[in-house]
């Protein structure tokens, strides 16, 4: 059983085609996820690509906070986090491009 009544940030960058269930278009907002789902965030080095609900189940989302990890080929620029805290998928990028924690931004 995953989290219940969980809200996630919902956003889809204009360059992204397709999408996840419940993802927004252009402007970030909050979406209530179905029971058992958790939050997902996908970023490249400069901005969020997709944020929303993910149906992988609670066991696949052990962290209450967003801890981005590389996805795809080694050295790639795509990072993903799965988390089960309230609006947790909005916390990894800060407020603007280049301010992301652990996303390759200069310190």
How would you describe what is shown here?
- With 107 residues, the chain is mainly β.
- It has one domain (7-83): Ribbon (CD59), CATH 2.10.60.
- Helices cover 0% and strands 28% of the residues.
- It has no helices and six strands.
- The chain has strands at residues 7-12, 29-32, 38-43, 48-54, 69-70, 79-83.
- It has a six-stranded antiparallel β-sheet, with no helix packed on it.
- β5 and β6 (79-83) form a beta hairpin.
- It is globular, with a radius of gyration of 13 Å.
- 34% of the residues are buried.
- Mean pLDDT is 76; it is low at 93-107.
- One of its GO terms (biological process) is cell differentiation.
- This is AMHR2 protein.
Structural class, please? mainly beta
CATH class: Mainly Beta
- CATH fold node name: CD59
Contiguous uncertain segments of 5+ residues: 93-107
The mean pLDDT is 76
Distance between the termini: 39 Å
Largest sheet: 6 strands, antiparallel
In spatial order, strands of the major sheet run 2-1-4-3-6-5
User: Mind telling me the C-alpha Rg?
Assistant: 13 Å
Find the count of extended strands (DSSP E, 2+ residues).
6
Number of helices: 0
Looking at the overall shape, the CATH architecture is Ribbon
**Percent in strands:** 25-35%
Order of helices and strands: EEEEEE
Helix content: under 10%
**Count of distinct structural domains:** 1
Shape by Cα distribution? globular
Organism: Formicarius rufipectus
Protein name: AMHR2 protein
InterPro entries: Snake_toxin-like_sf (IPR045860)
